[in-house]
Amino acid sequence: MLVDSHCHLDFPELASNLPALLDRMAASGVGAALCAGVTLERFPAVLDIARGHEHLFAAVGVHPDTQEGIDPDVDALVRLAADAKVVAIGETGLDYYRLTGDLGWQHRRFRVHIEAARRSGKPLIIHSRAAKEDTLRILAEEGAEAIGGVFHCFTEDRDTAWRAIEMGFHISLSGIVTFKNATEIKRVAAEVPLDRLLVETDSPYLAPTPFRGKINEPAYVRYVAEEIARLRDMPAEALAAATTENFCRLFKVTLPHART
Fold it and tell me: Which of 195, 173, 193, 197 is nearest to 184 (CA)?
């Protein structure tokens, strides 16, 4: 069984046909998924989806690209994270790719999320794009190694992956690993310790080959896993089992099929 460790099922492209999407997940052997929040305004929809399905989970946070809307504070995030269906804080982090200028507000918000994770005891989901040094520095300054988490949709280099792992974080790979020109990501996929590896879609974005350019969905996470298994010269079933075990351990969940 596979788990999609990061998707956005509340986004209109996916939410509009959720029953069929969940059927395709099951048919592809994807037994669970984590729906990450990007704004506090939209979080109720994320939580409703998770509450409605035993095999779906939620994370609460405000994406670093989001400047408008409710700015999170520690107390609010901790309160929302208290729901049993919320297994993580995020996604949060830094993004210097899309935004420029004075990004001090991103740093302040990132620190708020880290403190909320420490107080709630739930791991972080990190978004880091073109900001690896500041991301790692702030995580270290705020003591994030005490709570850990995952660098989702990893797009940085091998050195960054190892530094994140040394701080107690996992590395999650998306459909990017299937792209022909993703040389460094393929290298990371082949070398990251198996017990620190997760797979995801980040759907509706970044559909893997052979669906590149189309709307992504959790069922397609198997193409991510199959490519990583090929790069590691191991059976796809073993890769699926390992990443599913990692997901359950990191987010402290028991999947429905594993209950007795």
Answer: 173
Question: CATH assignment of 2-258, given 3.30.300.30, 3.40.50.970, 3.90.1150.150, 3.20.20.140?
Answer: 3.20.20.140
Number of residues assigned to the chain = 260
Tell me the per-residue pLDDT of 127-181, one tens digit each, with 9 for 90 and over.
999 999 999 999 999 999 999 999 999 999 999 999 999 999 999 999 999 999 9
Torsion, CA 202, CA 247, CA 240, CA 220, rounded to 10: -20
pTM higher than 0.90: yes
- With vertex at residue 242, the alpha carbon angle to CA 257 and CA 125, rounded to the nearest 5 degrees, is 90
3-state helix, strand, coil in the chain (%, to 5): 45, 20, 35
Longest alpha-carbon distance in the chain: 54
